[in-house]
Records
---
Amino acid sequence: MLKEIKSEIYHLLHPKLTFLLTSIDKNGKPNVMTCAWATPVSDEPPIVIVCVSKEHHTTKLIRQTKEFVINIPTKKLLPAIWICGKSSGRDTDKFTKAKLEIINGKKVKAPLIKNCIGYIECRLWKAVDAGECYAFFGKVLSASVDDRYFKKGQWTEKSEIPLHLAGSKIVYFK
Ligand SMILES: Cc1cc2nc3c(=O)[nH]c(=O)nc-3n(C[C@H](O)[C@H](O)[C@H](O)COP(=O)(O)O)c2cc1C
């Protein structure tokens, strides 16, 4: 039987790939948050959108320095996914708290997170006011992937990338 729902409509679009979104402030201090609301919107030129609450520290940083990085983790980074999704860079150094090591990006100053298996470095193109979030459109400047887990243009079962279902439930691509 079909039942009309009034809340959590967005969960109809889950599970969603869950990643670590890095950004940097104007003084060079980086931040990282867990993010699931994202999508590609154009292949040529490559453009992606990440949706970030207006209240998050990440929003301030992306608006300040106009760049961000999508870091795609595996199951092994699950503790970091929760730490970076439950505390704010406003008052917490999440890299230390989640024991994350950073590496330099190719095109942006925002850092890449070591041991992730895919990276998309973006320059902010447009920020659209979308209710509680900004939809940040990013022009892709560079993308790289660990080819043990991504073959012929697609993730393999081996990748075990985390997919957020709802609340505290993460499932894995298998
Ligand atoms: C699995 C998961 C997915 C999340 N997805 C999003 C998201 O898509 N957009 C968003 O604004 N916040 C999302 N969050 C919440 C932020 O990660 C969280 O509020 C974080 O503390 C913000 O950090 P910041 O203040 O350092 O930017 C998610 C959290 C979790 C645990």
Note: The radius of gyration is 16 Å.
---
Amino acid sequence: MKKVSFSVTFKFLTFGLATAVMGLMSSQSATAATFDLTFTKLSGLTGGTPAGTAVYRADLSSIGFDINSISIADSNSGLGGSSGKFSGFDLDGIKLSNTLISSAADVNSLSGLSVFNFSPAGTIFTPGTQRTPADPALFGTTGGSIDNSVATLQNFDGNSTTDSSAFGFVSLGDGGKAGFNLTSSVFTTSPIYLYIGEVGDNGEVANGQISVSDKPISVPEPSSSIASFAALSLMGIYFTVRGNKKTEAA
Ligand SMILES: [Ca+2]
Ligand SMILES: [Ca+2]
Ligand SMILES: [Ca+2]
């Protein structure tokens, strides 16, 4: 009799756990809204020395949802620009602002929203491949993450060169991707513009895949957070079973 009641309780809890995990997984994907952006190139160039950063603007006003993340991916065309550590899209800067500008020279003095965290905690980097000859790491990266002391993504200040004075940008590599989880939601009910800068002005933005989403970009953690959730639930089962046994024994 005791064994039967134990088995029924356990099955019920297992079913409850499976339902909860499924609910958790579907709630992560079901409501995500993602929007691919269209960019307008600003006039002129900006940057450091030499200045070769082209600036592009996307209008995010009235896209219909609040923005929590931005993703910039290299097109993986393998065309344009340099090889080795400079392969792919060369991101100089990224800024969100309520102000519309049309000249690249104005982007550094433009006041931006303080919603970026350029450390690896808020900027998720997926390195692309290098065209041969390959270097140890993509430019502006350290240990597979963006090194913002080199990339300075808050400033459009890249030195547009591949010699030893190269500075102020990160090369994504062919097919590479930079994801930005914003530190607070950006509302799109009032005018809001995204500005990005690409070093070298060699057409890599036009081919890039740049999108905004109402959901944060998942770090490789979600699977482990589901796992730890499952582990916690299993602990719950264990304690419930122990509790039942105790009750029965008493
Ligand atoms: Ca490049
Ligand atoms: Ca920069
Ligand atoms: Ca480039």
Note: Residues 57 and 101 are 9 Å apart (CA to CA).
